[in-house]
Amino acid sequence: MTNHWIDIQHSDCILIQGSNAAENHPISFKWVLRAKDRGATVIHVDPRFTRTSARSSMHAYLRCGTDIAFLGGMINYIISNDLYYKDWVVKYTNATSLIHPDFGFSDGLFSGFDDKNKKYDKTSWAFQKDDEGKVKQDTTLADPNCVFQHLKKHYSRYDLKKVSSITGTPEEDLVKVYSTFGATGKADKAGTIMYALGQCHHTVAVQNIRTFGIIQLLLGNVGICGGGINALRGEPNVQGSTDHALLYHYMPGYLPAPTVEQPTLEDYMKRVIKTTKNEQSINWGGNNGKYAASLMRAFYPNGGTKENGFGYEFFPKLDAGQEASVMTMIDEMYKGTVKGLFCVGQNPCCSLPNSNKVRAAMQKLKWMVHVNIFDNESASFWKGPGIDTSKQGTECFLLPATASVEKEGSQANSGRWMQWKYAAGKAPGDAISTGDIVWRIMTKLKELYKEGGTFPDPILAANTDFADEKGNFNAEKVAKIINGYFVEDTTIGDVTYKKGECVPGFALLQDDGKTACGNWICSGSFTRDGQNLMRRRNNKTDPTGLGLYPEWSYSWPMNRRIVYNRASVDEYGKPLNPKRPLLEWKDGKWVGDVADGAAPPLAEKGGKLPFIMQAEGLGALFGPGLKEGPFSEHYEPLEGPFEKNIMSGQRISPVIKHYNSDMDKVANASAEFPYPMTTYSCTEHWCTGAFTRWQPWLVEAQPQAYVEISEDLAKEKGIANGEKVRVRSARGSLEAVAMVTVRLKPFTCGGKTVHQVGMTYNYGWLFPKDCGDSANLLTPTVGDANSMTPEYKAFMVTVEKLKA
Amino acid sequence: MSNGKSILVDVSRCTGCRGCQVACKQWNNLPATKTIQTGTYQNPPDLNGETYKIVRFAEGRGEDQKPYWNFLSDMCRHCVNPPCIAASNDGDSMIHDEATGAIIYTPKTAEDDYEMALEICPYKIPRKNEKTGALTKCTMCFDRITNGLIPACVLSCPTDAMRFGDRDEILKEVERRVTELKKTYPKAKAIDAADVRVIYILTDDPDKYGEYVQA
Question: Tell me, what CATH number does B92's domain have?
Answer without folding.
Answer: 3.30.70.20
